[in-house]
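can u do me a favor
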């Protein structure tokens, strides 16, 4: 069924889409995006005032975060009966205009209510996963979901390769813990109050032994037994390491994450092995053997406690992110 959006509600609908798009995940919950309505289009800009110059000097995580918002908007638009036609980097790589999205009447999703519920339910749950294994078929299905958005996604299924990825992650965490400027920048986004950053309530408890806890006070020791857990690992990336590639990886991440949420799984992005040069180099040349450029790792698992009990991370008001 084709759904026509009345002209009188066009602005209201577009504002609603921006609000839903802003439910997307972002590095340290910085929400580094700015939106503008222009005729039939919604324009997405990088908000460089919310950048992480020490941890993310090239802006990879910033742009990747904006890519997740683009995909969230696509999902929301279809749930409302709109066709979102997206052009990434319409002005080239050197500009902050990341996406131009033209909205037209289209076919409504067959599950609109469920789609919007999943957008609202998706969250970053940093609590330790259970030992229940994530089947290889589930990991491959999640990777395929990401690949459908022009993102390269490879599940790590081989035990020895997985062990190498674990060690790379731990080494990156240990290396970052000695970087005073980076750890200070990270801490600035924890417990800020207001509409952004990471509330302390959603972080692992102090003294947690989970090696997944980037925000823990101390890195965990390199314990080989971590490979016995049931957590899944997927490497996301693309053919190059530029803004349009990061946007596509962001869209793939969002698609993967929403599918995982529907299935009752939790996703934890791991950008640290990419941020630290030594681990990024080994990940690209040894783990994926130069088949593509890694942009992000994600860990996937099951939680013993429902995510409904987890406090929600805040979001900036639409009036703050939607510019005239």
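np, heres the sequence
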């Amino acid at each position: 069924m084709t759904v026509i959006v009345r002209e009188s509600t066009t602005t209201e609908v577009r504002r609603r889409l921006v609000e839903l798009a802003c439910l997307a995940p972002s590095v340290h919950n910085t929400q580094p995006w700015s939106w503008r309505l222009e005729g039939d289009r919604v324009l997405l800009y990088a908000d460089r005032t919310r950048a992480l110059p020490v941890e993310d000097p090239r802006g990879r995580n910033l742009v990747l975060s904006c890519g997740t918002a683009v995909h969230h908007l696509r999902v929301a638009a279809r749930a409302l009966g709109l066709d979102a036609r997206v052009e990434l980097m319409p002005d080239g790589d050197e500009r902050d205009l990341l996406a131009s999205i033209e909205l037209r009447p289209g076919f409504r999703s067959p599950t609109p209510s469920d789609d919007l519920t999943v957008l609202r339910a998706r969250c970053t749950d940093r609590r330790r996963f259970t030992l229940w294994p994530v089947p290889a078929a589930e990991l491959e299905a999640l990777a395929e979901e990401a690949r459908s958005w022009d993102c390269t996604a490879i599940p790590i299924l081989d035990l020895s390769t997985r062990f190498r990825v674990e060690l790379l992650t731990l080494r990156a965490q240990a290396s970052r813990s000695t970087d005073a400027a980076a750890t200070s920048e990270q801490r600035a986004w924890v417990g800020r109050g207001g509409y952004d950053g990471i509330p302390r309530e959603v972080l692992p408890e102090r003294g947690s032994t989970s090696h997944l806890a980037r925000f823990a006070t101390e890195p965990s020791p390199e314990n080989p037994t971590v490979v016995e857990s049931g957590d899944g690992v997927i490497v996301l990336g693309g053919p190059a390491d530029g803004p349009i590639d990061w946007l596509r990886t962001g869209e793939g991440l969002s698609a993967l994450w929403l599918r995982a949420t529907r299935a009752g799984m939790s996703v934890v992005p791991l950008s640290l092995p990419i941020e630290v040069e030594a681990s990024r180099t080994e990940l690209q040349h040894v783990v994926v053997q130069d088949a593509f450029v890694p942009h992000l790792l994600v860990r996937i698992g099951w939680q013993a406690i429902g995510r409904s009990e987890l406090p929600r991370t805040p979001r900036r008001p639409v009036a703050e992110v939607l510019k005239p």
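The longest strand covers residues 97-107. hope that helps!!
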